[in-house]
Amino acid sequence: MSSIAFQSVFKRYGAVDAVKHLDLACAAGEMLALLGPSGCGKSTTLKMAAGIEQVSSGEIWFGERPVSRLAPGARNIAMVFEDYALYPQMTVWENVAFPLKVRGMAGQPAAARVGEVLQLLGLRQMADQSVRGLSGGAMQRVSIGRALVRDPEVILFDEPLSHLDADQKVQLRAEIKRLQKLRQVTSILVTHDQTEAIAMADRVAVMNHGVLQQVGAPQDLYERPANLFVANFIGEPPMNLMKAAWDGPRVVGEGWAVTLPAARRAKLSDGAIVAGIRPEHVRLLPPGTAGDAQGVVSYREPRGDADVLTVVLDDAGGVKGGRMVAEIPGPAAFRAGDRVSVGLDVGRLLVFDAASQTNLEAAS
Amino acid sequence: MAEITERSRGRSGLFWTAAVVVYALIVLFPIFWMATMMVKPNDAMFARPTQWLFTPTLDHFAYVIEQGFHWSLLTSFVLCTVSTALVVLIGTPAAYAFARFEMKGKDDLFLFILGSRMAPPVCLVIPFYLIYAKVGLLDSFLGLTLAYMTFNLSFYVWVLRSFCRDLPVELEEAAALEGWSRVQIFRRVVFPLLRNGIVATAVLCFIFAWNEFLFAFMLGGSSVTTLPVSIPKLITSQGVRWGEMAVVGMTALVPVLAVVFVLQRHIVRGLTLGAVKG
């Protein structure tokens, strides 16, 4: 197992920079997720690690070894594809055995390895079936088996769960994580689904427009997003991001205001800001109760254990009231049209610089 | 209720089967007629009213062989096989390259290739004739082979490119990760998946070449005579030899039918694009 490091990596397609100045490391045995919307450069990054795409400039290191000039086959990596990429003319067994066959490994040792991997993935009974008729989940398991069979230094997962049904997704998610930990194989996972990234990866790297936005443990991204993009991208329902201004120690928004503790306020610079608070940190109280804002529930979306309510805030201080989304334990007592008092968890309020869009308290 | 729908479905099924059979009979009748002409004596050929019963004769066959028409059959067969083989050999990598590789002016080049097929053959045969006359390829086996290869190659590359495009590129990437070279990947991953497409397209090329008349007539004619070109020789000063024409016509038809029949499975699978996906 080796670590992976991207060092000032660029990828250009003509005039377009698909990946810009990427510095990113993945420790040996770690699973790192590359997360971002489509077209953010995450797949390109993965393909550069695989050698399917060439690096325009910069270097990629596997441990102490620079690999950017090596052919894909010389890198000792395996890849799991979105569309499985199984050889349709082969059986399950043959597909898994393929990497060994290519390397001239045959006979008893090869058969033992293939058998072990099939066992591990619960594919033993299907060994002699053609891969054509398998379900998506089974096909992807075969594909994972093919990746595991020769103990590669690195496994690259390219949206491995995108085409699967919800229940297969959850099942395979756990399985991939278990196998990855069991084999301690360094892995990079590309996904556009934050649930997947958070569930499977040790650390998550968020990308947008070819630029790495933030990398950290899922909890870090959730609690301390580095900028507005990450704040908005991570979390469901998304964070409330609201224009606001300083009034001494007070943060004043459109129809709401909170006061920060003096010690915290002292560390923050002045200027136009955007305040962020997650829906789960917004409390709704009966009308008339003291709160940070007053408003009317405009829409309620029941989600079973929790309800998501959109509140239109009252105008305050001559400023038109904005909207705020709250997630509260369900079933909520409030309905559309009800007046409510809104309480904000000040400790959870994030403050971003409106111009640079960065978190003013980020530990950069 | 279920019984009724079942029965009515059975009835409409019967109706459609009958309709298809009738249609097939209408379409096949000329071929049947040609088959009877092969063994019909000349005096019964156009007798009014039609003579359905006659003593079969092998005279027409004898004349056809005596006149050396079997050499034309052989010429046609070898010519079409060789030119189609060349098309497959050159066209398959070309189609793959057009589908996969980035190159300057690829789209223009591709359209240009198709353009050569869009022109009416008559427009092409004149330059061919002039060039061949200069380089001494007129009335030669090589000359006709090259001509057939040229006009089939564009079609073949055009069709096979879409087959190549339908192959998931990830299969090739997966193989590349295992350390295979481009050539190995092409031979051992791409080629097996393309096989149905190659067979289907090659059969079409073969049939085009087999039925071709204009090029064979203009560029060949005396020492290299294909079967279609040989048929007009049966319009003689003593009249049209219909029986012999039927024999040669049938001979021209049978190999095409045989090829299509034997390779039917490949052709149907190949022509339903996307069948290669797992």
TrEMBL record, chain A:
SUPFAM superfamilies reported for this sequence: MOP-like, P-loop containing nucleoside triphosphate hydrolases
Entry keyword Transport: yes
Boundaries of every ABC transporter domain copy: 4-234
Pfam families: ABC_tran, TOBE_2
Domain of life from the UniProt record: Bacteria
Single Gene Ontology MF annotation: ATP binding
PROSITE patterns according to UniProt: ABC_TRANSPORTER_2
Keywords: ATP-binding, Cell membrane, Membrane, Nucleotide-binding, Translocase, Transport
Family classification: Belongs to the ABC transporter superfamily.
Protein name per Swiss-Prot or TrEMBL: ABC transporter ATP-binding protein
Naturally occurring in which organism (per UniProt): Ancylobacter crimeensis
From TrEMBL, chain B:
Domain of life per record: Bacteria
Principal localisation: membrane
Annotated transmembrane regions: 12-35, 73-97, 109-132, 138-159, 197-220, 240-263
Matching InterPro entries: BP-dep_ABC_trans_perm, MetI-like, MetI-like_sf
UniProt subcellular location: Cell membrane
Keywords: Cell membrane, Membrane, Sugar transport, Transmembrane, Transmembrane helix, Transport
Its membrane topology: Multi-pass membrane protein
Domain ABC transmembrane type-1, first and last residues per copy: 73-263
Function: Part of the ABC transporter complex MalEFGK involved in maltose/maltodextrin import. Probably responsible for the translocation of the substrate across the membrane.
Family of this protein: Belongs to the binding-protein-dependent transport system permease family. MalFG subfamily.
Protein name: Maltose/maltodextrin transport system permease protein MalG
Organism annotation: Ancylobacter crimeensis
